[in-house]
Specification:
The complex is a heterodimer of chains A (211) and B (255). Chain A is mainly alpha-helical and 211 residues long. In chain A, strands 1-2 form a two-stranded antiparallel ribbon. Classes of the chains: A mainly alpha (211), B alpha+beta (255).
């Protein structure tokens, strides 16, 4: 662990780190139990291997799903409220332009994408993190429609009522799982980002040291 | 295990400091590894642990309360045109189709119990003569995820409860069925205008697989909460549970 000292800088605030790890737990539970719920009445011609699922049977999976939803809602609400109110999202995630995303992705494939200062997200990172937040919001809203299709009927009409919400919920899940996979691969490629998600600190970037 | 480790630590006191630290680190590593392996290998038993189950059941009870707050007694479930009716309508029960109970229409009696003033049992002709008769084309949503649209006809359950002098301030209405099924609902849902005591399905006398002679239809609850083949109704303040509810399915299960 990098000691907090003159040669380190703050990369992640405590609120971001703690909500991040609570979200990891909540999303893991939601996905694993959700796959079991999906298996009870598959939308497509496949089911998830039961070994990958949580809950043991449909009732157990539903219990996990509807317990962990509170964890996700609470943690997500703190994160999004903080992100908007403090200007954190605006500072860290904006602006995003397609040209910048394309430039950085191309640079990454040439091995030329510098990620020296962990405090600044590159364009694909910004796009990915913002997408993940929006996908999670879609997951929660479509989940509300599935949970209470009568009480949240007006919301349901935006996404094709109960039956439409099943597809929206499924594809949003798939998109979030894809994000998680890419996210973990990126952390494996740039491993020094990993400890900063616990300590919140990283070494002072070379450029800043020189300056 | 813990005791043995601390004993070892004591016996090592006299040795040089780096060696102790090395050994302690190794012990810590081994303990850490075995904990990790335990969590991985016995993932199932961790989630089956009694304490975890207690938390999940407590959360389910909490979700019952939240659903009670969310439930709007005047919000109606969507109704559909008859052209939207699902054909054939799926059969679903905790047994297969050939185990559907054969209820004898002539000998049928509906028993009433609990906080009800008029406990006289009802015969089928008496129930069929109840007025006013209403119909609904609504969506049945199964806890498994699928949904189907059907047409049910009968009388408003709130009218029936008033007619028999039920205590409408009681918490629960419970149901016992000819197929040994049982369930219970909250009073606000029992009084919802779309909660019907139904005798007809698709304009026919309720067929046996769909609950002859009587099914409680609630488009504001999941399918399994809608009891079929009802033979007894009771009003109570004691939580009655239910066949699936006692096994872990959420009790309120509102839509």
């Amino acid at each position: 662990m990098t000691p907090a000292g003159a040669d380190t800088v703050r990369v992640h605030l405590l609120v971001v780190r703690s909500t991040h790890w609570i979200n990891v737990l909540a999303i893991f539970i939601m996905a694993a139990s959700g796959w079991r719920i999906y298996n009870a009445s598959p939308l497509f011609g496949f089911g998830f291997p039961n070994d990958w699922t949580l809950g043991g049977w449909l009732a157990g999976a539903l219990q996990w799903h509807f317990a962990a939803m509170w964890l996700l809602a609470a943690s997500g609400l703190v994160y999004v409220t903080y992100g908007i109110a403090s200007g954190y999202f605006r500072r860290k995630l904006l602006p995003i332009t397609p040209a910048a995303v394309w430039r950085d992705v191309a640079a990454a494939f040439r091995g030329k994408l510098a990620h020296d200062d962990l405090r600044v997200y590159n364009a694909p990172q910004r796009a990915a993190y913002l997408s993940a937040i929006l996908i999670a919001i879609v997951l929660v809203l479509s989940g509300l429609v599935l949970w209470k299709p009568v009480q949240f009927y007006p919301l349901g009409l935006l996404i094709g009522d109960y039956e439409g919400a099943r597809y929206v919920h499924f594809f949003a899940m798939a998109a979030l799982v894809l994000f998680v996979i890419v996210h973990v691969v990126m952390v494996l490629l740039v491993p020094r980002t990993f400890p900063t998600m616990f300590t919140g600190r990283a070494r002072v970037p070379a450029a800043a040291r020189r300056g | 295990m813990k005791k043995r480790l601390s004993g070892m630590g004591e016996s090592l006191r006299g040795h040089s400091r780096p060696q102790i630290e090395r050994i302690e680190r190794r012990l810590f590593l081994r303990r850490g590894l075995s904990l990790g392996a335990l969590a991985l290998l016995s993932g199932c038993s961790v989630t089956d642990a009694e304490s975890v189950q207690k938390v999940l059941w407590a959360m389910s009870r909490w979700n019952d309360r939240v659903q009670g707050w969310i439930f709007d007694p005047s919000r109606l479930a969507p109704e559909f045109p008859e052209s939207a009716i699902t054909m054939p309508f799926p059969f679903n029960a905790f047994y297969s189709m050939n185990k559907v109970p054969a209820v004898d229409a002539a000998g049928y009696k509906l028993e009433l119990g609990g906080l009800v003033r008029e406990k006289r049992p009802w015969t089928l002709p008496g129930l069929y003569a109840l007025q006013p008769q209403v119909s609904q084309v609504t969506r049945h949503i199964c806890v498994e995820g699928w949904s189907a649209i059907g047409k049910w006809s009968g009388v408003r359950f709130s009218d029936f409860l008033k007619r028999v002098g039920a205590d409408l301030t009681a918490k629960y209405v419970g149901f016992k069925c000819a197929d040994k099924y049982h369930t219970s609902i909250d009073m606000p849902t029992a009084l919802h205008p779309q909660t019907l005591l139904t005798f007809r399905f698709a304009d026919q006398i309720l067929p046996a697989p769909f609950g002859f002679p009587m099914k409680l239809r609630m488009p504001t609850k999941l399918g399994f909460k809608n009891p079929k083949h009802i033979v007894a109704i009771f009003v109570t303040n004691e939580y009655p549970g239910g066949y699936w509810e006692d096994q872990g399915y959420n009790w309120f299960s509102g839509s």
